[in-house]
Amino acid sequence: MIYGNSLFLANVEHMRKQRGEKVGEVENAVEVSTGYFARLSKNPNTLPGAEVLIKLALHFDISIDALLLYNLSAMSEEEEMIAKYIGKLRDGTAHGIINWKVENELLSARKLQLISAFPHKGDVFTNGATYISNLSDGSCVKIIPISGVDFAEERFGGFELMVKEANAVSWFPICATDLVSDMLKMDLKNLYMIIMSRRSQFSMDEGAKNYMLRFLAQDNGSQETV
Fold it and tell me: Based on CB atoms within 10 Å of each CB, which residue in 38, 46, 131, 134 is the most buried?
């Protein structure tokens, strides 16, 4: 199957106009030659290379999948805000700026039914780790893996994203998988996977690390044998 570049070019144009940039400014930012996008438009079956995609994604602060697969101009203002919010959470997590802890971790044969703040059509259950983070603005954010009839056909799984003030009791719903566009579904999945990946990285107690470093620093000839 051959994918055309028309949606990609339309997304670049949309993001460029949103930022008030000229075509040449975008081309300079991603280090391509003048007229690059015009040449692509004349070859509809040609997609940009990986390096260009990465630079564009970083420049527009958006995922590569979003640039290639989703019609960004069709997103509502609220969806764009949510996408930017999730993107900031994702990037902060990936760079170790935002840290998450497990609020609860249900890993059993039985699923726990949830009382959800979202208007799901059917019952909602969870059977996995719920992650929570205290953000620099004083708010808390939480992501919950969910399942149920509404999520049976979801390619990216099911998730709820919620936020509250640090000392508040009530959580405010941001978005849930069955209530948003495919792009946001993918963004929720990517955020959860990055959180899991960061938390699964082995970390060593500083005291144990110091003992090991001191032993490794010893000259081999001075070590006694038994």
Answer: 131
